[in-house]
Design goal:
Helices cover 44% and strands 19% of the residues. The chain is of the alpha/beta class. The termini are close together. It binds adenosine-5'-triphosphate and magnesium ion.
Length: 245
């Protein structure tokens, strides 16, 4: 079983879009995939039009949760919304607080890939996700702060690793919101390639309107617009993910 946290210190870089569409891409390839929404924004639940009774909050507190089947081979755990933010404060005073997710899921079986969709903050829930995960994907959008964003995120992972004594690896930096018509996108991608030659993924996710529209129809890109550039790019990412596994 591969356990992945999708995380960046910066907001709006395509984390949730990647969790949904990589998740569905893998499910369509026959993998059994669980997406855990680790963000109080509940964007995964909203995108799949699911509101679960027992959420990540119940899992972290009582070890009990609703795993909702959203597509064939694709399952999700709802974040619990604002309750998740409150739970953080309760957990903050408890021992082994950074290992709650790892402990809650230690008997999880029958699943090939777990994807944790993280929020763009450094909080206890994300520290739990990094500690639980064995690999991280860092989506970085093509703007001039990209390199700094990637470095900051890698530094956070290193710090969590040394604090919790875990060995979470960077599976890859994923370039997102790439616009081939602009010089900025080309330059930013070049800079990332130069500074992170081994970790930058070959797949680049281009700006694509269908990707933006799909969640408002409660569809993944493969359902909403299977011939779009967005579907092509997320299929490429699915293939690269399987190749690097
Ligand atoms: N390649 C793309 N082309 C166009 N729009 C995109 C693309 N990827 C994501 N979007 C849109 O950009 C917005 C932000 O994307 P997303 O929610 O995936 O980012 P995020 O990193 O999860 O944000 P947050 O940090 O708030 O959780 C969403 O409206 C999404 O539909
Ligand atoms: Mg998100």
């Amino acid at each position: 079983m591969r356990k992945i946290a999708i995380i960046t210190s910066k907001g709006g870089t395509g984390k949730t879009t990647t969790a949904i569409n990589l998740g569905h891409g893998l499910a369509l390839c026959g993998k059994r995939v669980l997406i855990i929404d680790c963000d109080a924004q509940r964007n995964i639940g909203i995108a799949f039009d699911v509101k679960a009774e027992k959420t990540l909050c119940d899992l972290l507190q009582y070890g009990d949760v609703d795993v909702v089947e959203v597509r064939k081979n694709l399952y999700m755990i709802d974040s619990g919304g604002r309750d998740l933010a409150e739970l953080e404060m309760i957990l903050a005073g408890q021992s082994k607080r950074e290992r709650r997710l790892e402990r809650a899921l230690e008997n999880l079986s029958g699943c090939d890939v777990v994807l944790c969709d993280c929020s763009p903050t450094i909080n206890l829930i994300n520290i739990n996700a990094i500690t639980y995960a064995e690999e991280v994907i860092i989506p970085i959008s093509m703007d001039y702060l990209a390199q700094a964003g990637a470095r900051q995120t890698i530094q956070i992972i290193d710090e969590v690793n040394s604090y919790t004594n875990s060995g979470t690896q960077v599976m890859g930096i994923l370039g997102t919101f790439y616009d081939g018509r602009t010089r900025l996108s080309k330059e930013v991608l070049e800079t990332l390639r130069k500074h992170f030659p081994d970790t930058l993924l070959d797949t680049v996710i281009r700006i694509n309107t269908s990707l933006r529209e799909a969640p408002s129809f409660n569809r993944t890109i493969f359902e909403h617009s299977p011939m779009s550039r967005g579907a092509f790019d997320y299929y490429q990412l699915t293939e690269e993910f399987l190749r690097r596994g």
